[in-house]
Amino acid sequence: MENNGPIHTPIKNTLADGLAVPKVGYNAFVTALPLIDKMVVVKEEWIALAILRLVEEEKCVVEGAGASGLAAILAGHLPELKGKKVVILLCGGNIDTTVFGRCLERGLAAEGRLVKFNVEVSDRPGGIHELCEILSDLGVSIKDIMHERAWLKDIYTVEVKVICETRDWAHSTELKEELKRHYTKVQFSEEPLAIHEQMINQGKK
Length: 205
Fold this sequence. Notes:
By secondary structure, the chain is α+β, with helices and mostly antiparallel strands. Helices cover 40% and strands 14% of the residues. The chain contains 7 helices and 4 strands, in the order ααααβαββαβα. It has helices spanning 26-32, 44-58, 64-74, 97-110, 127-138, 169-182, 193-201; strands spanning 114-122, 141-148, 157-165, 186-188. It has a 4-stranded antiparallel beta sheet. A hairpin with an 8-residue loop joins strand 2 (141-148) and strand 3 (157-165). The longest helix has 15 residues, at 44-58. The two termini are 34 Å apart. The mean pLDDT is 88.
């Protein structure tokens, strides 16, 4: 739009592959231009979260391109629509089953409901069992767990890598606090933090 005509754009991998065209057709550009007031760019995490929201709340399977409109609103890129009744076009459900599963997992991670962390526990018998008991007592579901000894300086500890599911962000926060009370070396993947802070600022926690 700033170029006043179609322009070539490098294509990268994206969940919204239906929108990823190297160059808009001239006829399409001329037809759409009078109907477009604003264009925004949304991050992949917001698209994944939009796909997850549509499945959970609307029971609707939508591809990444079709969910981008909701993603823009969730990301807060359209504040002028706040308080208004808005129609979002869910234009497309052509999504591969494998990609769909990945989108849901990425949406869960972005929302803080899928948590990944590394923790060093005692390598004595029962060390990993104690960790699993803590997770079980909190009501956390383990999706994947593995341990590593070879690259640790301390031969009496083992690093455990865990991917687990929680109910919501508050439950994930409770998990973090509990693990930090029990272990001195715990590292969480903080990728969802920026999205969560933005949702709080928008009153959408």
